[in-house]
Specification:
Number of helices: 9
InterPro entries: Homeodomain-like_sf, HTH_AraC
Organism: Chitinophaga polysaccharea
Structural class: alpha+beta
Distance between the termini: 55 Å
GO molecular function: DNA-binding transcription factor activity; sequence-specific DNA binding
CATH superfamily of the largest domain: Homeodomain-like
CATH architecture of the largest domain: Orthogonal Bundle
Protein name: AraC-like DNA-binding protein
Shape: elongated
Helix content: 55-70%
Number of domains: 2
Largest sheet: 4 strands, antiparallel
Oligomer: single chain
Keywords: DNA-binding, Transcription, Transcription regulation
Amino acid sequence: MLSSHKIFIKGMVCERCILAVKEIFADLHVPITGITLGEVTTIAALSDPDMKVVKEKLAALGFTLLEDKRTRLIKQVKSLVEEVYAGTYDFPDNFKFSDVVTRAVHQPYPVVSAIFSELEGVTLEKYIMEYRTEKVKELLVYTDETLADIAFRLGYSSAPHLSRQFKAQTGLNTSHFKEIRKMKQSLTHPGEQSS
């Protein structure tokens, strides 16, 4: 069964508008399953670059692309993930990301989590784990911080906890990425001893 995605457009007021918008999607080879005043239904969600092109083409005709509330919510949650797990967040005792989300978006966490899973095709928890794992890789390769420092910066309870989750996520030990760092250093500073 094909999923569908709705795109909301401000400024469509007549049949001519529908024809003009239909033509934009046809020119961009985006298959649509329905079009009414203010709304286009596509077979699947468009990528960000495709949406940018659609937005530009619509603007040229005097139409405005409207973000639906759920899409805005997902962007807000992703922004919170980036803010909290960037490595500079001051994690309070008994920290729960769900509390941060609930306060920021003024909606119950289970509702936000369900919307995230539906629109992103992955649970919010898995998205956070993957984000943190990528951040750990980055810090291992580009800084000389210890695993304990990285664990502290990214809100892990301990370095062993970070190591276990990292291994489960990537299938690799954190030491693998430390070796990559050493290789990069030897390539950029040949003849110097790496620590």
